[in-house]
Design a protein that fits this description.
12 helices; 360 residues; two-stranded antiparallel sheet; 2 strands; mainly alpha
């Protein structure tokens, strides 16, 4: 438990202390956010706000994770395959997002990498991650990922096979990295919601660690490789997002940009894959799913309905702004929605364990 606290506290400290340094550095270099001209007009005041702040979140998460091992190494433990692969996914998508942000700033427009280049970057990172997730079998025969589709645990009859798993993992990673990216449109919205989702994965993975089939044969135990490492990274990511939120809350002094949103969304998907809770992520990250769906629905209705729009503007948080809600009202209410989704998802996870434990 001490290692989990160390991971969270180190990441929080790095994030909250280094973000002001990043703000000043980005301001000196003129790395400011470009704003959509068709968006809510009060967003124009945000033009020039330093972006690429997600780099601090990525750095803090990585340092928090490895910082925890300064304590664990003394116990004869070192980083595991699962932990290193999640760090690879976080950093890899962070690099893709960084390039997108940098090109957007350099060209002084609200568009960075073109769709093809961005897709290729996500494909390279996502496919390589998925392939590696099926390697590194431990002494109990477990690999970080599983070819069996999962909800709150593996659904035994639903085996995807190697190719199916790689395709599904890529879909989940791309979907959530883009969903968090869509959500990052209001001060503190994506970072605050991410705190709650990573907090839920801290609870899920730590519960799995405490009920690991390799250490404790009981009804409802979990066959998850390196559950403690997943907990450490969830704690670090949560701490990093809390520290960043201090400076990202309205009025935001820095924006995470694609550097943060792509990496955080991908990390959520990676944790879902490694904890065998892939479909549960749709519940825990319900806000991100709704935001992404609002964009998809808007595009489909516009193209198939002769230019009609179902929302005043997509993503959906801008719809509520244009309907008269203040930005802070939208953010707080969306945080509440995320909290309810997380509570419901954790309830489903615990109910599954309880039902199996009662059968013993």
């Amino acid at each position: 438990m001490r290692s989990v606290l160390i991971s969270a506290v180190v990441a929080l400290a790095i994030s909250i202390l280094f973000t002001p340094i990043a703000i000043r550095s980005l301001q000196r270099r003129g790395f400011g956010q470009e704003i959509r001209v068709d968006g809510p007009q009060h967003h124009i005041t945000k033009k020039g706000t330093p972006t690429m702040g997600g780099a601090v979140i990525v750095l803090a998460t990585v340092v928090g994770y490895f910082g925890a091992y300064l304590f664990l190494i003394g116990q004869g433990r070192g980083p595991t395959a699962s932990g290193l692969l999640l760090i690879y996914l976080l950093v890899g998508l962070g690099v893709v997002g960084f390039l997108d942000d940098y090109i957007s700033i350099r060209n002084q427009r609200n568009l960075g990498l073109n769709k093809t280049a961005k897709l290729v970057g996500q494909l390279v990172v996502g496919i390589s991650f998925a392939i590696l997730a099926l390697q590194f079998r431990n002494s109990n025969g477990l690999t970080p990922g599983s070819t069996v589709l999962s909800f709150v645990r593996d659904i035994a009859p639903l085996t995807l096979g190697t190719v199916g798993f790689v395709a599904f993992a890529l879909l989940l990673i791309s979907a959530f990295s883009n969903a968090v990216n869509f959500t990052d449109g209001l001060d503190g919205l994506a970072s605050g919601a991410s705190v709650l989702v990573f907090g839920s994965y801290l609870i899920v993975s730590f519960w799995q660690f405490g009920h690991d089939c390799a250490r404790l044969q009981e009804a409802g135990c979990y066959s998850v490789r390196d559950a403690l490492d997943i907990t450490l990274i969830a704690a670090a990511a949560m701490g990093a997002c809390i520290g960043f939120l201090w400076w990202n809350a309205s009025p935001a002094r820095i924006i995470m940009g694609d550097t943060g949103s792509l990496s955080l969304g991908g990390l959520m998907a990676g944790m879902a894959i490694f904890t065998r809770t892939e479909l549960l992520l749709v519940v825990l990250g319900g806000l991100f799913v709704v935001v992404a769906m609002s964009v998809t629905i808007q595009i489909l209705v516009f193209r198939l309905g002769g230019g009609r729009r179902i929302f005043r503007m997509a993503p959906i948080h801008h719809h509520f702004e244009l309907a008269g809600w203040t930005e802070n009202t939208v953010v707080v209410r969306f945080w509440i929605v995320t909290g309810m989704a997380v509570a419901f998802g954790l309830g489903l996870f615990y109910a599954d364990w309880l039902s199996l434990a009662e059968l013993e």
